[in-house]
Amino acid sequence: MEREALARLILDQLPRFRSRLYLADAEALAQLLRRSPMAEVMSGDYAWSLCFEPAFVASLCWEGFLPICSELGGNGAPGLFVLMPKLHTHRCVLEPSAMHIPRKVRKRASAYRLTVGQAFEAVVDGCAAQHRPSWLFPPLRAALSALSAPSSLRGVGGATPCFVTFELWTRPPDGCTEPAQLVAGDLGCVVGRSYTSFSGFHTASGSGSVQLALTGALLQRAGFGWWDLGQEHGYKSGLGAAAVPRSQFLRTFRRLRAERNRLAEVVGPGGDASEASALPPRASAEAAAAAAAADGKAP
Questions:
Q1: Which of 43, 92, 212, 215 could join 232 via S-S bond, C-beta 3.0 to 4.6 A?
Q2: Whether the model pTM is above 0.85
Q3: From which residue to which does any coiled coil extend (predicted)?
Q4: Which fold has domain 92-294?
């Protein structure tokens, strides 16, 4: 069925979609934003679309959306995939330098190694396996893969949205021939000096907390203005994140997306981020957090 005819059928059969903003494609989004700011157009958290073109997904990320996917129907039979771009009324954001890192996480960190962009599909698989039902359905996965940064991280420093993965590996003892194992990862989108986390996973106890800590340290050294964590949750508040209203989020996001990060510059050969993600001493980390709070730098 032609896309617009299918959209009309969905509106006719599913009343909940009638109150949500429909975005046909990237051009429709651009036309909408020429008329009104996004903060004035969105009433709830969700818009919807039947378009999964990578250029459209990139446009959504450029405007601060988290494009997620939903399946209508299904129940064992093939369903209809619908893109559900989410722009939270309140967004949870963290300044990397103000991240709270427990002492036990610091002790565990030396047993692991962080890389960037070296196992994209494996991290996506891990996220989909851990979070069921998953929103990482095939059409969205294809778009994210098409927008993923190369393993060299070329082009990831500018304003073009790029999807990257942060991978946590075991660090076998010296002399051990056992290969390193992927035990945690984070999937997200880099736009300038903003990093938005889409999903994460872990397979070993405590590895998820280590991955978060090392990723935060890396983002700080790479010059990111904030770490956008999406929807508010208790564990995110425990990291030091705060929820900000959508209008405030969009103002800061638009500034950060136009500024360059240094991710490709601080990551070593083969995506090795071990040196750049080294955790700062506890005392200096606490001092940095206190200085950020005193200067009013938190988003």
A1: 92
A2: yes
A3: none
A4: Aminopeptidase (3.40.630)
